[in-house]
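Quick one - first record:
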Amino acid sequence: MSEEGHILTRPLGAPAETPAPEAHAGVPDEDSVISAIATVYDPEIPVNIYELGLIYAIDLHDDGRVDIEMTLTAPNCPSAQELPEQVREAVAALPGVSNASVSIVWDPPWDMSRMSDDARLALNMF
């Protein structure tokens, strides 16, 4: 995804100690989007899809659009139709989101190394 349209918290090239300009009012931040995505669980695995490492990119636009790239645990995943729609609905429900889109990508392929430590702990993989 391109960087065009991303909300910048400071002007490009400005030192970090420069006061950050106000983001557009009402546009959700990445943490809010991640929290919404984390409400979606793979029905076969008791871990949310963010902790599973299925989210590859979150692109926030200053007009309220949110574009998400995600993958699935396998190409023949039985939840292939419902998970992306659940993610889209969860993000679209956030205040300030004008449009949410979810694209499925297969490159790079998902593997267990993408899971967070919390997900590994929940699945007794340590």
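second record:
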Amino acid sequence: MKYKNLILKSLANYCLLCCLLLVSCNEEQRFTDYEIAKISFKLPSSFKFKKLNSEDSMVYGIFYNNVNKGYVYFGNYKPFEENSFFITEEKELYEKYKNRELKAYFSKNQERDYKNGIFNDNYYYYDTINKNIAQIMLPKKPNKGLIGIYFDSIDSRRNKFVIISNDLSEENKKVFLKIFKTIKTK
């Protein structure tokens, strides 16, 4: 009888622990609304949003515990592109440029590798977020690249809207993908 009571108590404690874990895992993160021009989006309430100095566009910093997690740009901004490298089939050119600022890659399939983005740090794809076409950028490797979203001509003045982060932790990726889904134009 003692063992039966012990087993029942252990089972009850296990069920209680499982329920608590399920409730805590499903707890919704609170978000705060922000608006730039006629674009609204939400950030986790634990994030701070601060306007930064800039000349030709509006720039804002996204901070968590006084650590910069990302930026928001509105105005003049160039599309996501990776063009700080070149691919060559010529070993002499590769040897000459491989240790400079402009990265050099040697490839026997130069054209195909360039078209397929083999040497890019990020993956790119298009998605529709609340009826607006956006270019999404995600890192190929866990420790190199960026997370970002780019809207071209988001308003009648053809302004660009960008949110970008270089914090590549899995948690931060998930948070920023949630942020991207909240973007709306008015």
